[in-house]
Amino acid sequence: MEIATPPTLRTLLGNGDLRLSLVSAERSLADGALDRPVRGVHSSDLVDPTPFLADDLVLMTTGSQFADHDERGVGDYVARLVHRGVRALGFGSGVHRVGPPDELVAACAASGLALFDVPYDIPFLAVARAHAEAMASHAYARRTWALEVQRALAVAALRPRGLEATLAELARRMGCWVGLFDSSGTIAQEHPASLAGGADAVADAVAELLGRGTTATRSLEEGERTVTLYTLGRSSQLKGVIAVDLRPIDAEARAVITTVIAMAGLALEQSEQLARGRRRMHTQLLASLRADDPTLARRTLGALPPAPMVVATAADAPVEAIVGWFERQRAVGGTVSFVAEDADGLTICLGASSRALLDQVAGRFGIRIGVSEPAEYSAFSHAHAQATTALQRSGGDGVIEYHDVESGGVLDALVSAETRTLARTRLAPLRTHDATTGAELERTLRVWLEQDARAEQTAATLGIHRHTLRSRIAQAAVLLGTDLTSFPARAELWATLRAAG
């Protein structure tokens, strides 16, 4: 259904029963001056009627106030009308004179105010009544449109992929772009295919709204475009944002959009419940895969990422957002993935050929990911252990490959956040002493152990005397509360230095 447009000055002038005639040359008016909505029609012969007028009115007068005014006074009168936001001036011809005075025609032309002639036999009341009837007809058409659109949206919601169908129907009925952003601020759907220009600004505004965590509405003004954002869900539990590229949004359009927001919120809530069920199921399937048995997962899911595959693990990751991201990759590019969460964190399984997607995930969500070497499903547990080892043994950002950290040896494999904290606590007296005095006891111990505790080689490497070396080692032993003459004590100190970093 075509959306009804509100009555304009052109609508009023086009009413054949009124026989109104435009005096102004249309080319001298601002672009679209005759096509702007008119809110009402009023009449007054006051010298200054502006205190009693509202914006976007058409004013009619018989011209009696011009009897004692010269050209300058008429110009001031027209300027006041323009400043007040009057759309046009109608002159009642034949009451005091036939046709508007030349001074009024010139002043309207100079100010860009549309001037039209009202025949003597057409009462001002008839013009006002005609406009009121046009307004009522428009309001009825808009209400009818809104009801029809709401019915169409309800039907769309019952289709497969109901939320997508609903948003597509909204975009079609409104004749505008509609976008759905998920809780991470990622564009999940858009109809039509993309927003032409300003997409980055919209995405930034969406991220800001979601960051606040409260229900809100915000409008972005960019030239002739207005994109309005509506949050979905309750405060502190936002499910996403709907963006609508439409201006203006009247009461009927707002009611339609409000209906869609309510439907979308309900759909996302139901989708979230289903997602929680899927996550629980995937957790159970992950346990089966970690037992190196993919049979249950294949039977349940129908397909797993093709072998050889890689296993990735991540800690403190936004599970819902990452699951949604991989679901979109499957919908758009057909990439099959398996994502599950258990007590050890998030696990991602991909075909080795899709390994590059992990770089995108790490960059987009700002997380660290450990990745295994390619493996078959019969070695899933080993690949999972490799990914976990890569994540734990590296302090780097982004994606950490197992083969990049495997050369560190057994000692590095034993390092975890807990052992690193313990080692740094153990070395704290030594490091405090070095920072306070400028001594190099920690460096001396490292070089000494690297030289197999041989005094001459260590002293030569450090460029100090052997007696100075012995003094430093003895002082370090006192600070650490240990006897460094035995091999077990030296081995523990070496492991502590390696773990502390």
Helix fraction, binned, reads 40-55%
Q: For the terminal residues, how far apart are their CA atoms?
A: 70 Å
**Outline, from the CA principal axes?**
elongated
Order of strands across the main sheet: 1-5-4-3-2
The count of strands amounts to 15
Helix vs. strand class? alpha/beta
Give the oligomeric state of the chains in this entry, treating copies of one chain as homo and distinct chains as hetero: single chain
Computed over alpha carbons, the radius of gyration is 38 Å
Sequence stretches where pLDDT stays below 50 over 5 or more residues = none
What is the residue-averaged pLDDT?
86
Main beta-sheet annotation: 5 strands, mixed
Proportion in β-strands: 15-25%
Describe this structure in a few short sentences.
50% of the residues lie in helices and 16% in strands. It has 18 helices and 15 strands. Helix 7 (251-290) runs antiparallel to helix 8 (295-301), helix 14 packs across helix 18 (487-500) and helix 16 packs across helix 17.
Secondary-structure blueprint:
Blueprint: H1 9-13, E1 21-22, E2 40-43, E3 57-61, H2 71-84, E4 88-92, H3 102-111, E5 114-118, H4 124-157, H5 162-174, E6 177-182, E7 187-191, H6 199-212, E8 217-222, E9 225-234, E10 237-245, H7 251-290, H8 295-301, E11 309-314, H9 319-333, E12 337-342, E13 345-351, H10 357-365, E14 369-371, H11 380-393, E15 399-401, H12 402-405, H13 409-413, H14 417-437, H15 441-450, H16 455-462, H17 466-480, H18 487-500
Parallel strand pairs: 2-3, 3-4, 4-5, 14-15
Antiparallel strand pairs: 1-5, 6-7, 6-10, 8-9, 9-10, 11-13, 11-14, 12-13
Helix pairs in contact: 2-3, 4-5, 4-7, 5-7, 7-8, 14-18, 15-16, 15-17, 16-17
